[in-house]
Every structure is written in structure tokens, then in C-alpha cells.
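Researcher: I've got a protein sequence and the SMILES for S-adenosylmethionine. Could you write out the 3D structure of the bound complex as C-alpha cells? I'd like something to compare against our soaking experiments later this week.
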Amino acid sequence: MQISDSSSRILAGLLEARTGQQLTMSRRWRLETALSTILRERGIATLDELITILVMGKEPSLSQSVVEALLNNETYFFRDRSPFDLLQRVALPELQQRRQNIKRLKIWSAGCSTGQETYSLAMLFVEEPEKWQGWTIDILGTDVSTSCIDRARRGIYSQFEVQRGLGIQQTIKRFEECPDGWRAVEDIRTPIRFQEHNLLEPAPHPGGFDIVLCRNVLLYLSPDKKTLAFDRIASAMAEDGWLMLGAGETVIGQTSKLGADVNARGLYRLVGDGSRIEKRQGDRRAAAGG
Ligand SMILES: C[S@@+](CC[C@H](N)C(=O)[O-])C[C@H]1O[C@@H](n2cnc3c(N)ncnc32)[C@H](O)[C@@H]1O
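Model: Sure. Here is the predicted complex with S-adenosylmethionine in place.
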């Protein structure tokens, strides 16, 4: 099935207007595959016919489905593993000391796709019950895609999906078999809430998050949209909070509000109050006995 240049430009424009995501050349080649289910389900014969319906603007639910079909939702449990080790080794111990008086942590998984990242985070806590006894852990998973958030809320994953990142023991302990696959059990569901949210819109809970993960979400945003998304994220972070990006992503050159944490490669801090950052680094050296 052929798609004209003008139709592919309209789809790219729709995706960028709604999410900030640019349709890369390689993804343009896959438009037909990405949209084939929508065409079949709605009885639409060609992509150009689909575009005509979209342009008439009579079916808002159709344009949302098209946008969602064009998004890249790739994810898996404990993706890239080392970022979770970094949280366990650096961020969580430090936050445990700093939040000792309130015993509460707030974590935001922004662009959580179908929820694997969010459940992986919850597992970090339930796997160390003595350490986190008496603590309230709030994990918020958000995504611009309604269908992803619906799936994340259901928390049911196929055999293939659990095998991507989870060992057998972890699967059996944290998931129960059900007719559709494996369903997350209550202990990893309890800390998590899911909500639809677009990173280009104001952030949920300004100033509230101790850790924000925004991994593999901003790669295809134009520079100005990236800056806007980083502004939104920065506004959601606690003064001494951290941002974690995906492998190969950086804030450098994208925002003046965040900078690399020199003591924890891969984590980013709010900047703007240098004395606070130096003090934190001093505290950490002192805690480490250096
Ligand atoms: C490749 S997945 C990454 C999922 C997960 N963070 C990980 O690293 O495994 C990117 C996710 O970002 C979401 N996304 C894209 N643009 C977004 C936006 N403007 N606001 C919120 N989520 C967005 C997509 O729907 C998709 O689920």
C-alpha cells in the first residue's frame, strides 16, 4: 500500500502537534504496518482514505488512535538494568537518610509506556521489606497514550513480556498466572498510580518528586519541545531530587535548569543554587567518610 508524501506529512504533523514526537525517516517507512490494525478495524481501504477522514476532523477518537499507533512504546522490565542498580546504590540510600523524618518517597515514571518500568521500581522496594518498613512509597506512572496507561493499570503481561527482564523467581513471586498471562500481585501494585499525562503540559505535583525517570521518551522531540519538556520535569522535582534519563540521553545543551550530578553519572540535579549542590556533595563525602 502506497502513501503519498503529503499524507505522510499530515500524519507526522498530527503526531508532533499532539506529543512533540517527530516521525523519523525509519518510522515513516513503517507507517503502513503501524496503522494496519486501525484500517482493518474501521474498514478503511487505504492510508490516503484514512487521512481524508482525519482531515475532515469528524472523528476525534480516530486521530487519538492514529497518534497512539505511531508512538514508539518499546519497554521491558528493568530495562538496561544498570540504572536500577544506580538508584539502589546511590539515590535510594541518600534519600532514605534525607527523608527519615517523613518516611515518604515520591517517584515519577514519565513516559512509562505499558508500565514495566513502574513495576520494576516497585520491586526495588518490596524486595527489601525491612529497609522500607514504615515508609510510604508513591510511584506515579504517566504516559500520553491512553491505551498504554490502560494496559499498565491492568498490569497483565504475556509470557514473552515477563521473560524480557524478569527471572523465573521474580515472575513467580511478583506475578500470578491468569488466563491472559501474568498479573502483577498486590504488593507491587499498591505503591503505584497511573495517569494519562503529556510531558509538554504542566507537571503533576510541582516540586514533589524525589526521583523522576524519563527514559527513552524525549529522543525524538525537536530541540524546543525538549527544552519545554525538561522545564516541566524540573518544575516537578524536589529541590534535592534526581532525574534519570535513558542510556545515551543527556540534558546538556537542552536546558539550563538541570545539570549532571558529578558524583552519580547518569543522574541529573536541579541547578540554579550552586551552594546547595556543593553542600549536598560535601554531605555525601562526609557520609562516605571522605
Ligand atoms: C520508548 S517508550 C519508553 C518507556 C520506558 N520509559 C522505558 O524506557 O522503557 C516511550 C514512551 O513515551 C511516551 N511518550 C511520547 N511522547 C510523550 C509525551 N509528550 N508525553 C508523555 N509521554 C510520551 C510514549 O507513548 C511511549 O510509551
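Model: The chain has a mean pLDDT of 91. The first strand starts at residue 104 and ends at 110.
Researcher: Great, I'll pass this along to the crystallography team.
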